[in-house]
Here is the input.
Amino acid sequence: MRILGIETSCDETAASLVEDGRKILSNAFSSSEALHQKYGGIVPEVAARRQLEVIIPVIHEALEEANRSWHIADSRSAKTIRHKPYAVLDALAVTVGPGLIGSLLVGVETAKALALAWDLPLVPVNHLVGHIYAAWLDSPRTPQFPLVALVVSGGHTDLVFMEGHGKIKWLGGTRDDAAGEAFDKVARILGGPYPGGPWIGKISKMKNKKFPPEADQPLAEKMGKGESVRFPRPLMEEDNFDFSFSGLKTAVLSEVSKIPLSALRTQHLALAFEFQEAAVEVLVEKTLRAAAKYRVRDIIVAGGVSANSRLRQMLNAKCQMLNYNLFIPPLELCTDNAPYIAAAAYYNFKPRPLEKIKADPSLEVGDPP
Ligand code: KG4
Ligand code: ZN
Here is the structure.
């Protein structure tokens, strides 16, 4: 079964053709990230306008890309997809939420129009569940149920237990900021760009570089003596699967306020590193605790923050030690994308009448789309 997935929940416009929920035949996208950088965060109006401009070219590109790969393997399919895309597709899938309402509407209404014109079924997909299905794509093994999944993105942090496709039990989530949001806010405090996650990850790796003499301020002094600031591990000792990241952000802010501006540039490496250690440790610890409590062997970690190399490293090491099968997407499938929207639709194939499909910005991970 071939499904064309469409994703427009935030600042990415993406379309992808996926076969049988696992094989990516094409993956086209366009991002308005650069347009938001000067504002230090996403401007919803700007994102939605950009979605409108690029949605049709992106869908066209996804079909053309499939056409190019088929051209070599099967010239009949190639010809068909160029002239009658509907003849090689079995269904369409679209993200209906959560996300920004203006952005979501562009994808949802475009998908409905195409489904009507091409007479194809349309499957609504929950974006957060979509992230989890990155684990099924282009992978030699597939996850086995029951399993535990952690979704860590810019807007959400959710830990869920899955007994099967569509059987999702929410275990816990953030009580305040999402993990990605915390990375973004800490980056902003430290003078970094938007989005902040990749930047924090990058500069954390530079932490062991020598501090120049002018950085001889409280933090650098401590680090010089082999000590370092240790941020709290919020809610780590509590017997639940909840997270809290806003206190960590405040702890970074308080540490920054002690450093004179002239020394900030040299010391933000250490602060970024320590923040990342704290955030990652809590995410890993709670996920492993959920895996133990629910007696699963398979763990999925997905969403933008799963691109973080320290998180990947710590998860890999612990899962290997404790004998869990860890599924963490390749970097290009961690952040917002369309292949996993198509994959989620394949494994949860519930097309709905077009008039019932609506954008829902506040959908939660356990809600049916
Ligand atoms: O899943 P995603 O692309 O969009 C949402 O659904 O929100 O996640 C975006 C979030 C941003 O907050 C970004 O800073 C974070 O993922 N992120 C990272 C990394 N790459 C992206 N956070 C930490 N380390 C990274 N390497
Ligand atoms: Zn996302």
Confidence is low (pLDDT under 50) at residues 210-218, 220-227.
